[in-house]
């Protein structure tokens, strides 16, 4: 069991490292949660309301009924956004042909536009874009539920 736990820990560390690199390389964007300097004058109630709003939004998106065209709608938007980037369009074609719900985490952790678009939508609380990603967010949640470590990891 310790090998399995170490494997989970190594995967977590690897994913965190990739995320840090991606976040560093991403374009500057506005964050819905402000830094301490910007929070001056805001009450904890206002900050809690922002957090609560984001949680409700996610809950609603995850409860929505999936439709056949969900993936196609997202792909159409991505084609429009990536119109001159051949490398990313090739990745979009691969996504179109090979995506399945059991591969959501794999697609999310790849260094592609998918990770960048989804994270930007989450940071900005872009409801329209999050709506298009709802099938993908749902698949990520289900995969995380299936793959979560069942036992505590102890380091001695």
Descriptive tags:
mainly alpha; single chain; 156 residues
How much strand? under 5%
Distance between the termini: 15 Å
How many strand units? 0
- Low-pLDDT runs of 5+ residues are 27-34
Shape: globular
Radius of gyration: 18 Å
Overall helicity? over 70%
What is the domain tally?
A: 1
Could you state the order of secondary-structure elements as H and E? HHHHHHHHH
How would you sum up the major sheet?
Answer: none
Structural class: mainly alpha
The average pLDDT is 79
What is the count of helical runs?
9
Described by its quaternary structure, the protein is single chain
Descriptive notes:
- By secondary structure, the protein is mainly alpha-helical.
- It has one domain (2-147).
- The chain is 71% helix and 0% strand.
- It has helices at residues 2-25, 36-39, 44-63, 70-81, 86-98, 104-109, 113-124, 127-132, 134-147.
- The model is unreliable at 27-34 (pLDDT under 50).
Topology at a glance:
Layout: H1 2-25, H2 36-39, H3 44-63, H4 70-81, H5 86-98, H6 104-109, H7 113-124, H8 127-132, H9 134-147
Q: How is this structure best summarized?
A:
The chain is mainly α and 156 residues long. The protein is built from nine helices and no strands.
